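Record pair follows.
FIRST:
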Amino acid sequence: MVFKKIGAAGIIVGSIVAIAMATNPGEAGYRQYANGKIKTELKDKICTQVAEDLGVWLEGQCHILISATSPYLAEVISQQTQRQNFYLFSIYQGDLSLPEPLPKYHVATIGIFGNYHTYQAKNFN
């Protein structure tokens, strides 16, 4: 009876490990995730600040500018991020140094089971 329970637990753990390995997301997916995340962050924080300081009309222009620079943001993210692949999951860490007056961030994200979760984003400004 004990061996059946141990065997069943081994099968369950083995299945979870196999699923985690098969769904460990890659770098291309991370670049898409990070690009979307940084665009949202910039639009929420920077464009809101622009609206408060300079007026609502410029907030719209700020959104357009961030959307237009999306390829540049994706390239910056790609160049400044390091992946540590642990086979069951991956950790992505990077220092995103954007041109002034945009903020500088240290970002740490885990990729597991086909998803990304940013667990650390420190603003250096």
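SECOND:
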Amino acid sequence: MAVTRLTLDGVDYTLAPEIDLDALRSALLDGVSSVGRWVGFPSLNRGLVHALITPSSSVRLEEHPDAPVEFSWEGDQQGYDLDFSYGIS
């Protein structure tokens, strides 16, 4: 089984196996407010990412200070990129 890795702001995290990748995907597709609620950002709570991602795929989350946040899915799941503006308070 592949290990799920999240790279957040240049820091790699290995995530808990019970996390539901489909739930995370749904949250991302719901929009920025859901991303903030479900995933978290460095300015919110990095620990939140440990609640949602499964080891069925690798996820890369990169924060760009003056650009949208880019989510790239890699692995066994259907791949796609999602861009959201970084505007969560």
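COMMENT: The beta strands are 5-8, 11-14, 57-62, 69-75, 81-84.
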